[in-house]
Each structure stands twice: as structure tokens, then as C-alpha cells.
């Protein structure tokens, strides 16, 4: 009888302890979430509220601008990871500004953000595929050197030739780079490149 009484009291005490621990855990979790939300709000306090609202609503240009604020430490603590996250939101929509900023961030790295040439090349190529001349020229360089992509003079020629087809202050330099890598490709490779270029230009009239 005594053993049953002690067992019943022990079970009751154990139940009280379990409930108390569960309550404490929920309370602690809620406090942590509230603190995290407050920290996030304080980190963004220096960014124009209207700009931040547009960025949160999905406006790509505003997302790039918020990313620039974090990258430069303008109004907020400098944070390349946060900058990349905002650039990524815009880049995922196909926004050139987001793609180019994200590519440059991966290319240079620094301040706790990892340098990743494969990621840089991937985002430069997305911008180049859309017709951005600077990105096309950058791809020409990356392909000729094998940085972030497989080394290929034919691929390098393709990008330099597209960049050189657009009038601008660097057109002559792009053409010179094209000729330099062109000395390393075969007639068959050149023919294949020119076929690709014709298809690209037909789909992207300038």
C-alpha cells in the first residue's frame, strides 16, 4: 500500500515537472522569436521605410537598392551576406541589376562572404545571355582564363564577339580581345560560334 502511494505521488510530481519544463520551453522560444524579430527590425531601421516596403513587396529595383545599402553599410551595419540575399531576390526574377551585383559579390568576396568564381560566372552568364555587354565581356575573360568555367577559347571568342558588336567606348578593346583568342580556335570552331551568334542575335535584336 505504501509503495502504491509513493508511486502515485512520484508520478504526480513527475507530471508537474514535465508541464513546468514544457511551459518554460514555450516561453523561452517565444522570447527568442520576439528578440530575433526586434533585432531584424533594428538592423533595417536605417533603411528608408518606403524603399524597404517596396523591396518586401517584391520590387526588384528596390531589392537591389536595399542590397546596396547593406553592401556599402549605408544606414545599416555593413553585411555582405544580407546584401547577397537581397540581390538574390532580384536576380531570381531575371533582374540585370540583381544578377550583376550578385556576380560581383561572389567574384570579390570578403568581409565574411565567400569568394566563389563558379557562382560569379553563373550569374554573369545569366546577365550576358540577356544581352548585357559588360557581362558578355566578363564572360569572354572568364572563359579565356578558365575562371569559374571550363577554359575555352571558342567560348571566349563567342562572348567577345557579341560584346564587340555593340558600339561603345570599349568596342575596340573587345574586338582586339576577340582577335587574340581567335588565333587559338579552328575553322570548325569558328563556324560553330558564328552559327550560335546568328541564333542569339536573331532572338535578341539590338
Characterise the protein shown here:
With 206 residues, this protein is mainly alpha-helical. Among the domains are: 67 residues; 74 residues, no CATH class. It is built from 10 helices and no strands. Helix 6 crosses helix 7, helix 7 packs antiparallel against helix 8 and helix 8 runs antiparallel to helix 9. The protein is elongated and about 60 Å long. The chain starts with a helix and ends with a helix. The N terminus is likely disordered.
Helix and strand arrangement:
Elements: H1 2-43, H2 49-56, H3 60-72, H4 80-91, H5 96-108, H6 117-129, H7 133-145, H8 153-164, H9 171-182, H10 187-203
Helix pairs in contact: 2-3, 3-4, 4-5, 5-6, 6-7, 7-8, 8-9, 8-10
Q: Quick recap of the structure?
A:
The chain has 206 residues and is mainly alpha-helical. It has helices at 2-43, 49-56, 60-72, 80-91, 96-108, 117-129, 133-145, 153-164, 171-182, 187-203.
Question: In angstroms, what is the radius of gyration?
Answer: 28 Å
Order of helices and strands: HHHHHHHHHH
Strand content: under 5%
Our count of helices gives 10
Question: What structural class do the secondary elements suggest?
Answer: mainly alpha
Give me some keywords for this one.
206 residues, 75% helix, mainly alpha
Amino acid at each position: 500500500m505504501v509503495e502504491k502511494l509513493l508511486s502515485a505521488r512520484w508520478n504526480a510530481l513527475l507530471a508537474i515537472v514535465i508541464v513546468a519544463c514544457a511551459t518554460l520551453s514555450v516561453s523561452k522560444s517565444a522570447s527568442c522569436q520576439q528578440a530575433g524579430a526586434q533585432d531584424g527590425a533594428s538592423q533595417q531601421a536605417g533603411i528608408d521605410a518606403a524603399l524597404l516596403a517596396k523591396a518586401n513587396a517584391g520590387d526588384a529595383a528596390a531589392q537591389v537598392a536595399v542590397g546596396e545599402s547593406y553592401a556599402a553599410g549605408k544606414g545599416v551595419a555593413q553585411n555582405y551576406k544580407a546584401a547577397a540575399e537581397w540581390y538574390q531576390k532580384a536576380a531570381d526574377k531575371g533582374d540585370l541589376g540583381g544578377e550583376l551585383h550578385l556576380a560581383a559579390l561572389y567574384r570579390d568576396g570578403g568581409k565574411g562572404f565567400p569568394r566563389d568564381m563558379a557562382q560569379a560566372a553563373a550569374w554573369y552568364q545569366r546577365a550576358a545571355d540577356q544581352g548585357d555587354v559588360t557581362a558578355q565581356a566578363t564572360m569572354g575573360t572568364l572563359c579565356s582564363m578558365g575562371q569559374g568555367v571550363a577554359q575555352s577559347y571558342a567560348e571566349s571568342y563567342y562572348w567577345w564577339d557579341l560584346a564587340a558588336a555593340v558600339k561603345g567606348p570599349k568596342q575596340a578593346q573587345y574586338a582586339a580581345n576577340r582577335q587574340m583568342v581567335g588565333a587559338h580556335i579552328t575553322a570548325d570552331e569558328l563556324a560553330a560560334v558564328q552559327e550560335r551568334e546568328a541564333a542569339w542575335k536573331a532572338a535578341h535584336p539590338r
